[in-house]
Amino acid sequence: MPSPQSYPLPAKIPLSCALEGKALLTTPTFNKGSAFTATERETFALEGLLPSTIQTLDQQVQRAHGQYNASGTDIAKNAFLTSLKAQNEVLYYALLARNVKEMLPVVYTPTEGEAIEKYSSMFRRADGCFLNVLEKEKVERLLAEWGGEDEVDYIVVSDGEEILGIGDQGVGGIGISIAKLVLMTLCGGLHPNRTLPVVLDCGTNNSDLLNDELYLGLHQPRVRGKDYDDFLDTFVQAVRKLFPKATLHFEDFGLGNARRLLGKYRPEMACFNDDIQGTAVVTMAAITAAAWVTKTEVRDLRVLVYGAGTAGMGIADQFRDSVIEGGKSKEEAVKQIWLVDKQGLLLDSSSTLTPAQKTYACADSDFTSVDTKDLTSLVRAIKPHVLIGTSTHPNAFTESVVKEMSTHVPRPIILPLSNPTRLHEARPSDLLTWTDGGALVATGSPFPPVTLEKTGKTYDIAECNNATAFPGIGLGAVLSRANRVSDKMLLAAIRAIAEHAPALKDPDAPLLPDVADVRNVSKDVACAVIRCAVEEGLARVAGIPEGEEGEGGLKMWVGMQMWEPEYRPLKKVKPEESSRAAKGELGVGRRG
């Protein structure tokens, strides 16, 4: 086995620690609670500060799970987990890792959306970096407090304008930055003390927040135009200067800014937008798996996207790129994609289209005899193989729509992706009933298995959960120190996820891997991304293994750098000779 020095971010060696006593017990990176060994208690001045019984991590998880279950409602469980994370990071992630399917909806969608809505009223302890548009001159100094250029790997930033289908949440957007980084660690193995959640407080247009005296953000309407752009650019340039090796992840920006900002900064640095690219990658993985199941070429599919916002446009672009990869021209690929928004099918004559939407606008003359605002009529005219919902228009995929689709396609691919659950375009039970089990379905939120009354057959429902995509992409970008996240990296990630689809072994099984297997999926996605980074000359790390499997191969190289929720031995070091990591100052804002 290669020595630990072969791995830029080793995750299996002892941790240097300069803290002791209560300072150690209140630092979540190092705290082990009742699991500190007798030697550690003596070495780090913990004797008398802990009960005498020494317990294992498994025992601690058992107790924490009981406390979690006793919390009652999902929002109370979310608050319990938030508190646990602030006390003991290893225990927090160990609890989540052992109960991924049970707890993912609590730490992420849909419960995290409620927690963000209630951010100010539930506030107890600040976490993350808060930057506001009225103090642009402080941005670089405040970011610098979080570490040096080799101490921050991944940054998630939101301006809180379009959160999880619930809209403008202002400063509560810090919650989505934190939640995404939890998934980066839980699912992708990023070191939690080397990540940075940020919210850009630009005001809010949410009248409920503006009228709430407990609201913690700026009590003013959102800043727009040049002042907003200057603030964003100040932030991005500070990130590039202070953390040149880090990947920047944009999250839940409004429709008017998300694509624009990604387009502006993507050529300059390693950056990623999960709403656009992550959603598109996991959706395209589901479509790819479905194409393999139906023995159809992706390049030949017709796709109708219902909802031409940030997510819908990202999916359209990713499908276009996949068709181009299959050998067709951009012009040919675009003609296989139809977009429907509030005004109906996007047409050349539409006066409110964004530049990105205009790419997919259809000629009016092709639809003169079609009601372009009626989804059933559009399905009849277009005959799509794939129907995707990103509209937040509940129950839009009616029985009429689905049965019309089934008359043209033996196994229609139907993906109602809007979340939270109440905003889904259709329920899986209805889709499978209306198609006699023929539909290939994946949803944007978790749904229970469906048993058809007619046949008695039970179908597990695939979830188009971005957690199977962005953690692996981010891990690959971090470990290769890629200076950009390229289109080829995203295409490689799609294939890696699709190859894990249970449907490849059973055509009635889910189109996407279960979230319980997400760590393995993330490792394969990271390997695919790293290979692309090396091939394209974008990697900035030397010594990346060329081989894939076996001792010394790429998979081992990735795995040895993935942080695991397990207690590592602590090595005592002197404060005056220690790093910021040893002082517990990474992942927390400490003036240095």
TrEMBL record:
Name all Malic enzyme N-terminal domain ranges: 85-266
Q: What name does this protein carry?
A: Malic enzyme
Question: Can you tell me which residues form the catalytic site?
Answer: Y108 (proton donor), K180 (proton acceptor)
Gene Ontology biological process terms, A to Z: malate metabolic process
| Cellular compartments per GO CC | cytosol; mitochondrion
- Keyword annotations for this protein? Metal-binding, NAD
Instruction: Give the start-end ranges of region Disordered.
Output: 572-592
Quick one: which residues bind (S)-malate? N419, N465
Give the family, as the similarity comment puts it: Belongs to the malic enzymes family.
Q: Which InterPro entries match?
A: Aminoacid_DH-like_N_sf, Malic_N_dom, Malic_N_dom_sf, Malic_NAD-bd, Malic_OxRdtase, NAD(P)-bd_dom_sf
* Residues that hold a divalent metal cation according to the record: E251, D252, D275
Q: Tell me the lineage of the source organism.
A: Eukaryota, Fungi, Dikarya, Ascomycota, Pezizomycotina
Name one molecular function that GO assigns to this entry.
malate dehydrogenase (decarboxylating) (NAD+) activity
